[in-house]
Amino acid sequence: MKKSTSLFALILLILFSACLPEKKKLDLDLESLSISAIHEKYASGELTAVALVEAYLARIDSVNPKINALTIINPKALEIAKALDSEYKETGKLRPLHGIPMIVKDNINTIGMPTTAGSLALADFYPETDAFIITQLEQAGAIILAKSNMAEWAFSPMHSESSTAGITRNPYNLDYVPAGSSGGTGAAVAANLGTIGLGTDTGNSIRGPSSHNALVGFRSTLGLISREGIVPLYLRNDVVGPMVKSVEDATRVLQVMAGIDPKDRLTAYSEGKAENNYLQYLDKDGLKGARIGVFRTLSERDPDPEITELFNQALKDMESLGAVIVDSVAVPNFEELRQDQWCPTFRNDLEDFLQTYVKRDTMSTFEDVLRVGTKSEYTRQRIASLGGSSLRRGNPEIPCGNAYEDERRIAFREAIEKTMDSLQVDVLVYPSWNNRPALIERFEEEYRGDNSQIIAPHTGQPAFTVPMGFSSGNLPAGLQFLGRMYAEPTLIKLSYSYEQGTRHRVPPKL
To answer: Disulfide: which of 35, 50, 184, 232 matches 349 by Cβ 3.0-4.6 Å?
Structure first.
């Protein structure tokens, strides 16, 4: 009797379930989701932060094994999303980045997740505090979704390979590099594994991976954004910034990140120079009447013919959008001024980070890092070369200072800005890379240099890259805008106008 009753109840349950309305499946086009589009969906009740995080987690499960862009998922991402949904339900107000899933490069301190810089030496380092900019972003409502793979210790502009996670591949063509060192963030955001991303840039590492992955990458003025709580390469050059799908989203992230931090003394120079509202400069007609200086000193450095064609088309496009093209601009004494700008401060900067944040007797010196070692032959060679003097090679008597005090850096910047002033140009433009991305198997042989390391890291000037099309093999290329110190408003206006007028970004097919 009990058996027949149970069977009858099961049949009733099946019949009842069949009569229930089918649960509506969430159909999200992650490529189309900008910050403002997500907020519109939150406001209309069409989407929740929990549902969005779930959609990205499903996408990560499907895509990340192909590109190896992410190293760890935030175990609290759904919990944070749920709390943000509850807050919005109660207040009816959205914070600037409310419920926006974010990818964070694995050299930026985040509580609850390791910060490894791709190295064995920090493989089990869990920071006690968030980096200053992580606190700012979380207070604005961003959700740290995952940490991204990177070139170990941020050494390589060429590729993104770490001892902790291995090699990251370019989502547009899996045989090719995503550039370095923020290649994990670049590949992840390009492949829609998160809405926004963070990279760090000592010379190339925001703009290089952004250009290789059809993204917008902002390297801001040195001093505008804090670098506290970030594993350094050369702190005198290091910048942290957004890597995203649009100039608008990059501007929204910049708006939150900019600010003075007592723990990063360089930010004191930005007092009175930062804007309260960068969003006001998102002007589709921003190129009308703008004077664009073509810096062929860089664009003609042994370029790939396909990149040259894309760059020359970009100049025509900007002219058709109302710009005056000043072709070309030459900076007096440029080749001499650009020399001897690097000071290899890695040992000193790293030891300061280890002693401030890691706080272990067994991992406090450069020698401790050497003792633990690396899985990468490239990293082994690089780290051995960075353990010696931190002085300039050519002029060791000139102190290695920040961009506001170092006499060689100031001279270089003044020469560029005076030339811009004399020609009344708003920006200088050049390809972010003169050549196509390299094959992963031949990353060193096919690397022929990039343009990002030559000016901005040393002068401190801001430089933004935006997509300018694709070369053969479905490989993205980027156009770079270089501005005067604290000219982020100008760069936002011009890069946004170019982006909106050309619409080069398309998602990878994975």
So the answer is: 232
